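Exam prep: given the inputs below (a chain plus adenosine-5'-triphosphate), describe the expected output before reading on.
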Amino acid sequence: MRHRPRGENIISFDSVGLRYGLGPEVLRDVTFALPSGSFHFLTGPSGAGKSSLLRLMYLGLRPTRGRVVLFDRDIATTRRYELPALRRRIGVVFQEFRLLDHLTALDNVALPLRVRGVREAEIRKHVPELLSWVGLADQLGAKPSTLSGGQKQRVAIARAVIGRPDLLLADEPTGNVDDRIAMRLMHLFEELNKLGTTIVVATHNESLVSRFSHNPRLHLEHGQVTRVN
Ligand SMILES: Nc1ncnc2c1ncn2[C@@H]1O[C@H](COP(=O)(O)OP(=O)(O)OP(=O)(O)O)[C@@H](O)[C@H]1O
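Solution:
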């Protein structure tokens, strides 16, 4: 792992704007910086631009204007061939999970480790451990099509955290699970954060946010970060 010293910025946005095609700006003048090792909630009403902001953070999109610096790299000048190496340092939990349908739960979660060349013996030890921790011990061999929404969500979370990324971005990661599992998943994020991962969790769930005191919170309203406290 190459976690950075706590306190340095892992990502910063400076007057960032984003529009899709010729549409209106969905993000406007977004400026903030996240110190390495911090834990933030990203809140805001539906359509405010949370997923779009996360897309910029994992290099799924480039800003229409302004500057995004990630891992000390200005993404406007980062070459296409350099992106996969940067993305491997980011764990992402997508709202729509994006699991590979032809792979089992175990193989989906193992994927980031296999890409990195981790030994199969280690994979066979750690992946079942993590899947058991998220309550899926009896689903290791299950294909995504046979899993419920909440089970798929947990597989997606396990895949995002297994490699202890430098940055974890999670879009509504507790949207499909009950309260008890939501708390368990939040504790998993906290443990990862203690190990040095910077975490951003986008959520509508105000009661979840109020139970954890991670600050500053990024609040988006009409495409603008209106509160950072
Ligand atoms: N691929 C796209 N093409 C065009 N417009 C888009 C696209 N994705 C999002 N938008 C628009 O950008 C705005 C912000 O959407 P976004 O999904 O980022 O909001 P959100 O805060 O994540 O919403 P939710 O909480 O409902 O997921 C919306 O007006 C949406 O219609």
